[in-house]
């Protein structure tokens, strides 16, 4: 493993820092990077596409790790809105809490939030796996298309509203389910998925403690009796 | 029926109600029978004040024209010089509006790319992502970032020549999209990460930002991901054009795309299309005013769409302050949509050429707004591209003809002073004098 390359964001500036990280080739051997003085800046480590490890010291603003491909991003702090939005692969770990729309529209990869996630976590998710060690806010997994959302704590109002084919696993209480979301049978295949995700997310929980929620598929074809 | 009743008293002629017209009554009967609102494609069909209500004055003793076929009249436009390293330079100021693969067939998208590229202009993706055919056949391709984010990925984002953040569209300001199950083929379903055959709903709000302050940060992120290379457009519906334009500029847009209510959609509720949003003509001057008030008119570019049909419309929109226009419905007609050659098949669908708007049903006889392999096979993308190129060329020549007659050596030099209005409404909206007067409603300092 190569030495850690440290970038002082305050001294370097956002554009130069992201340009340096984005310039890392897919076969790079400069694999470990550390960003200091993050100070809530927006779009930190957005648009990366290389198997590098980026450690962020401090909390981040909006869209940290946006559209990430391959990179492993670890935030030693909390994350602002839209962390890991539309990410394709790789992983993002947030030690603290995450604000709204964490993992929004993500297509792939793993997003781990060790604290709580605010509202609309996993909104329109399209294949991403999200593991939240704490609670998630209202309207989480709204219009979630595919992928897995795992919540070790509680879920707020209207979980999985207008959900498509994403799988939702919640260990704690669900305040309410959204339109067309219902509790589903937990089968062996789901326990296997959950076991794997919990392990990869470093979560201390057993798959059997969770309930699974998904689409009742009643909104899939327009019916006047479903409109309100 | 005789003119008199059996007692010899004259009958009154049967009289249709203007309020309860045949059209209205048919809507009521349809609603009563189905319990569901009418969904259709296209833009507003009702008569609204439009470019037809404006005229150019042309040259006279006080204005000197340019020689029609000999003197230069420029048509090029550069978009995105405000922030982007690689602004887009188009040879003509007529772009192709965003229309999705899904709503349109793959060959139709290819034809749009071919025609636009041959004419020296750009085309635009839509809700559903970027197809290889479209990228391959489009010299300049604008990639839309929509609320659904179907097919959105950073590789395509970096392959795009510009990014258009779609906040709204003129047919349905405040509304999301829909693509009914008939058109969700295997390929469309895969691109959108959805099950095949379902009625697909697109969100009306973006999933990861709300309001202008967030939009500014979203644009920052898009610029960071694409290395500040490509222009960022913001597309808004004709709702509150002064404020929407102001906020788009504040958020960092290089280009504002403004779509009036005549702008088309693949599918939405008829009531939405006809009753929400403002006519294109009413939107341009407030948007230009916003750019002027901010001191960025001609720096932040304004593209106007919604009911552009001819070079006259192009010239009028530009005279009112637009830098370019965009066409969608007109481009589809140029490709062959609603062509009378398919009249028998339109009749079989219960409609007639020119009125067919059930694009969402996927049974388009012209093979353009469909995913049905047999219907798609009727459409030749090479011939379609040639027709679109021809049409764009004609529009450009028409606009140049008018501009030269007004003494302008570039379409951008057209100005409101070149125009008069035929109606009070158009005069008020366009802020140009009613023909034969020096007055328009709302003119500063004017008295009755």
TrEMBL record, chain A:
SUPFAM superfamilies, sorted: Alpha subunit of glutamate synthase, C-terminal domain
Top-level taxon in the UniProt lineage: Bacteria
Domain Glutamate synthase alpha subunit C-terminal: 26-190
Molecular function GO terms recorded: oxidoreductase activity
Cited Pfam families: GXGXG
InterPro entries xref list: Glu_synth_asu_C (IPR002489), Glu_synth_asu_C_sf (IPR036485), Glu_synth_lsu_3 (IPR012061)
Designated name of the protein: Protein GlxC
Originating species: Roseovarius spongiae
